[in-house]
Amino acid sequence: MEQPTGVVRVALVDDQQLVRAGFRMVIDSQPDLEVVAEAGDGAQALRAVAATDVDIVLMDVRMPNLDGLAATARLTGAPADPARPTPRVIILTTFDLDEYVLEAIRAGASGFLLKDAPPEEMLAAIRTVHRGDAVIAPSSTRRLLEHLVTALPAEDATAGVVHEGVASLTEREREVLVLMARGRSNQEIGADLFVAEATVKTHVGRILAKLAARDRVQAVVTAYEAGLVRPGE
């Protein structure tokens, strides 16, 4: 059957079939979302994504054969193919897995979702990450980032690189980065700074380039690590 225009194609990766079934039911109830692949471990996920056009992967962390972190790194680290863009990965997590989240971002994940999040939050997360114009803002991502960064060691191995990138930002780029870290979309940032959304997009592109960040989530982590944003602000 031909897929409707604009439908976001989702792959579910979790070793619990019941969890996948619940997610599928919620996702497939939406006219703009469709589950096109399922996998019970990371190795199956790599094969499924190679065989199917996928936009977003919901990836569990703890799985047999190949865990979610390793699978994410392989997915996002694959050579770029203009004909089949690399899918974006949302890590499925719980607070007791916080130690894995920063590693997941560095592996290439674009966001996180708590496994017990309400259905509407999961749907919003998928759409937000697919759209690419905001971190998964008001909910789990910010809480997890704040919880994580509070526990970060004082000296990180990447600190020198992090601060060098931040030091190269203009004052306006710093303002935009801080607003990104607070979960603001491009449209909201434009309204806050009284500039056009297209101008914000230009700033965001320059920020990502200067910070050598793969996406907005990585840039936000850098903002926290560099002290531009503090937990609870």
Automatic annotation (TrEMBL):
Organism superkingdom: Bacteria
InterPro entries according to UniProt: CheY-like_superfamily (IPR011006), NreC/VraR/RcsB-like_REC (IPR058245), Sig_transdc_resp-reg_C-effctor (IPR016032), Sig_transdc_resp-reg_receiver (IPR001789), Tscrpt_reg_LuxR_C (IPR000792), WalR-like (IPR039420)
Domain called HTH luxR-type: residue spans: 162-227
Gene Ontology MF term list: DNA binding
Keyword DNA-binding: yes
Chain positions with 4-aspartylphosphate modification: 60
Protein name (record): LuxR family two component transcriptional regulator
Native species: Sediminihabitans luteus
Organism ancestry: Bacteria, Bacillati, Actinomycetota, Actinomycetes, Micrococcales
